[in-house]
């Protein structure tokens, strides 16, 4: 397989490595990924994250294992195991299905497919970025949630890709970065990307976003997605639904930015999207290089969904690599391609 390098994933010298996103923003440490078990563990620990990047990482691992001589039966079993690692993120399933479609053609076909998936993601990120930047006003102040940039894709990102392109065009003046509890993907990862890109920004707690909207400090909200249902409902990092409700009340445009591979035409609506429940320890405390800290009573129960579902009626527009859609348009496009 040829050399493939992105911000958070690289394949060089027959070796797949992932940037450990747990260690950001202060430490950039690359981890080798040479087994299905390692990839599943990294996905579940969010050392690799972002629906597009998870799918590409899984595809590259399968191609690598094929080159190492794994049999078709072993590769099919590996794909089945990887599929279960992140049930909400439909990009993972789409990438694996693309790989499985050519698995009987041998290792070279799997390598070509994996390389194509990587290169397609780079190109589609650029298309989304350009489509989205056109929608923003001059001197735009944008609020975003979680992390949707080059740490989550092979390319420039989804929502952050739009932000970066608008900044490059001179249209963007400021970014409000939702901290994104409980794992702080905004405060840690999006802020890291904003600094790398030189984009003016401020981090705020998720619960402060409504104040900014009330005070007229937000011109648009851009978020990503892990799955878009056939009716336009979509799942994204928990806290997105709160933003959508507040945006609707304050009449702030609310856009979801995602590749077409995030669309699931077989999922009728948001109620049918499986939502991963995560460990209670993520809510009750924090773990890191500094050790473990618990701030909640050990006996308390916890509700910790990784994602929530935003209904289509709260969305201003869907920015995909195939174009920009309103509610009627996205439903029609999904039905036509489904």
**Roughly what is the average pLDDT, rounded to an integer?**
96
The structure class reads alpha/beta
Major beta sheet, strand line-up: 7-6-5-8-11-15-16
Radius of gyration: 19 Å
The helix fraction, in percent, is 25-40%
N→C terminal distance: 32 Å
SSE pattern: EEEEHHHHHEHEHEHEEEHEHEEEEEH
**How many beta strands in the DSSP annotation?**
16
Estimate what percentage of residues fall within beta strands.
15-25%
Q: Report the sheet with the most strands, covering strand number, pairing sense and barrel closure.
A: 7 strands, mixed
Overall description:
With 338 residues, the chain is of the alpha/beta class. It is built from eleven helices and 16 strands. The protein has a seven-stranded mixed β-sheet, sandwiched between helices. The longest helix is centred in the middle third of the chain and has 29 residues, at 107-135. It is globular, with a radius of gyration of 19 Å. The chain starts with a strand and ends with a helix. The record marks 146 as: Transition state stabilizer. It is an enzyme of class 5 (isomerase).
